[in-house]
Design brief:
It contains nine helices and twelve strands. It has helices spanning about 15-30, 70-75, 95-110, 125-130, 135-150, 190-200, 210-225, 260-270, 285-300, and strands spanning about 1-5, 35, 85-90, 115-120, 155-160, 165-170, 180-185, 200-205, 235-240, 245, 255-260, 275-280. Strand 5 (about 155-160) and strand 6 (about 165-170) form a beta hairpin. Helix 3 packs across helix 5. The mean pLDDT is about 95. Pfam families: Bac_luciferase.
Amino acid sequence: MDFGLNLPSYGSGASPEAVVRVAEQAERIGLGAVWTFERLLRPVEPVSYGGFAPPAPLPEAYATVYDPLETLSFVAARTSRIRLGTSVIAAPLHPPVVLARRLATLDVLSGGRLVVGLGQGWMAHEFAVAGVPRERRGARFAEHLVAMRAVWGPDPVRFEGEFYEIPESQIGPKPVRPGGPALLAGAVARAAVERAARLGLGLNPVVMAWEQLEETVSVFRRAAERAGRDPESLPIVVRVNGSITAKPRAGRTPLTGSVEQVLDDLPRVRALGAAHVLWAMRTPPDEQLAVLEQLTARAPT
């Protein structure tokens, strides 16, 4: 298991200089990956976050979000080893051929370092501006994935589905790894977690409580087994929406608080078979790098 962090590619602190500096420092201190995410817009009106909570204003930082793939392409040219991840891109907002080609291009340009977190999307405003129906987005997501895998397969490519069609064509480039880059599902609802397992995706859950994370992983593995897949072959990348801090914190959520508190938490997340933990912190980038450097140096290998 190794560690990663979100790049400063959103909010008032986003800049090309900040993105490159954090990525280069992350690689220098031995982090496993740097991450971006997708947000097309920040509605002015309150929004039900994820579709589960009462309507509320979205974070002001969402008013400026760099495109995840352009950002990672920029970073790929300035780094050589660190993995480049998305957590997550809402796949149905993009035509499968367009997204598959963009991902394959970044994968080739980075030497196969791409890790792709995908979601089915949730915000009605984003579906509206993308011109895509929000209804049946789970089924659309599943077919989108099959279509992208077809694009990454041998030429000529041909696909006919309920939502998407690709005429017999040559489509390149192809990703570095046969079958495409590593794929993760950013899934919360039980049905989405089970769908991810059936599709042979890894899992990118957000940890809010230990019981929630453990139940999500258990549901995922049971669904993989029922689908005839080896659960151990499907990676789990845990996302932490919270900070590692200089001082201990009371009443904290898992994998937040001081370096010592996070070190105490790591055996529990290791027991779940997590391959990687990424933090989306709310502290300045230099502080994030400092605590992650300490964590990387002190965590058992």
